[in-house]
Amino acid sequence: KKTKQKEGVLKGKASVSYKYDLVIENLNNIKEQLILYERLPHSVSGKIKVKIGNFSENYARNTMNVLKFVINMDKVDKKKVISYDYEVINDKDFSISSFCMTRDNCF
Q: Strand 2-10 relative to strand 13-25: parallel, antiparallel, unpaired?
């Protein structure tokens, strides 16, 4: 579930905050370990910053803002929710028009 929390301009910087809830269900009646990868926005431009906020679970992060969660699901944990938020900050005069998968097809 994705929620856009706030949007605004302050001190020449535009920002948009997002909150996500990832719902995981264990449909087996046994203990399971799940490795979940989640990608946050990433920019090669110094004009765009991603500020990571709060997380409900521990995670590891690489330089491309890919998060790795290791979740141990007991058979009694039928459902688990991972919540996190982040903020995208950029110069107010800099327009973000799309997210690019590779550097070659951007700008």
A: antiparallel
